[in-house]
Specification:
The protein has 337 residues and is α+β, with helices and mostly antiparallel strands. The protein is built from 6 helices and 15 strands. It has a 3-stranded antiparallel sheet with strand order 1-2-3, with no helix packed on it.
Length: 337
């Protein structure tokens, strides 16, 4: 029995010694402590003392102190950044940009910013057609009053477009007055009037003279369409004296004027007159020719036939072939001179 008790005690002692060797804290002294040095400090810094206040754009500085060991160090304070106030200088509209100014309440730094234009507040309005303009839609801004027409995309209305071939009535333009065509518009399909712009003068220099008293050259012009004349004084070129005339140019312009301004507008009328004249002229000549044949007067019959042919040829030259003949006549004069 005693032997068992001693065995239990020995085992318990051995186990206690083993557990103590594993779990008991070490009693070793650190090297720094053995040499008399303080252990390192886990610093706890205070809020610090500001030595340089920060601005909107530059950082500041402060000194902080450890509340455990008393050591100090210098730290940066971040820049505060601007605190802008927006001032409206000009309000933006639908026709003009606006302008605002940003002013910093701290440092008075400022800059301007352009505000884009606003969108138009358009109202669609129907516009009835009239004698000169097509039916259209008008878009007008209720704020600024600007507008445009749907058909053209601009502020100009679409005028009637009447082709010359389909016009019911035409008034040809002159050098100074506009013409007009009345008929069905090719754009809108309605009947209206299309204004044809005035042609404007076609000035041709007829001659020039030198004015010795003023030292100026006087140019004389005439319009090839309406024959209006004008003069123009220009500084005389060195060595220019007397009068100079471009005869070929004048004759060409005269022929062009006759053809374009006198004959062409009335070509259909002149052709009709030629037909009427030929018919009227043929009646008395034909009767005279028949009478002469019945009387067996061959000489008189021949004269009647010759007179008829001559009348037809002369009237044809005057009423139908005149422009061509005038042009040929002018070219002959130019070649001779």
């Amino acid at each position: 029995m005693k032997a068992r008790i001693w065995l239990v005690l020995v085992v318990a002692a051995f186990a206690a010694a083993l557990i103590g060797a594993v779990t008991l804290p070490s009693t070793a002294i650190p090297a720094a402590a053995e040499e008399g040095e303080a252990p390192p400090c886990n610093h706890a810094w205070d809020s610090g003392r500001t030595t340089k206040a920060p601005s909107c754009t530059t950082p500041g500085e402060k000194i902080v102190t450890c509340i455990l060991c008393g050591i100090t160090q210098r730290d940066d304070i971040p820049a505060t950044g601007h605190n802008y106030e927006v001032l409206v200088i000009k309000e933006a509209t639908c026709s003009a940009t606006g302008l605002v100014e940003h002013v910093c309440l701290i440092c008075n730094s400022r800059y301007e910013e352009v505000i884009p234009t606003k969108s138009h507040d358009y109202q669609k309005i129907e516009v009835d057609g009239d004698d000169y303009y097509c039916h259209d839609w008008k878009y007008e801004c209720q704020v600024c009053g600007s507008f445009y027409y749907e058909s053209s995309g601009t502020e100009e209305r679409t005028a009637h477009n009447v082709a010359n071939a389909t016009a019911l009535l035409s008034v040809e333009p002159t050098c100074t007055t506009p013409g007009a065509r009345m008929g069905k518009c090719a754009a809108c399909g309605e009947y209206g009037i299309m204004e044809v712009p005035a042609l404007g003068h076609d000035w041709v220099m007829e001659s020039q003279s030198y004015d010795q008293s003023s030292g100026m050259t006087v140019n004389y012009y005439f319009c090839s369409r309406c024959n209006e004349i004008k003069t123009e004084e220009v500084e005389a070129a060195e060595g220019s004296l007397g009068v100079s005339v471009d005869l070929s140019e004048i004759l060409n312009r005269v022929a062009e004027y006759y053809q374009n301004s006198i004959y062409e507008p009335y070509a259909d009328l002149l052709l009709m007159l030629f037909g009427i004249f030929a018919g009227i002229w043929g009646i008395p000549v034909g009767i005279s020719y028949i009478i002469a044949r019945k009387q067996d007067d061959k000489e008189k019959a021949r004269k009647m036939l010759v007179n008829f042919v001559l009348g037809i040829v002369v009237s044809f030259c005057l009423l139908v072939a005149a422009p061509f003949l005038v042009d040929v006549f002018m070219q002959v004069i130019i070649s001779v001179t």
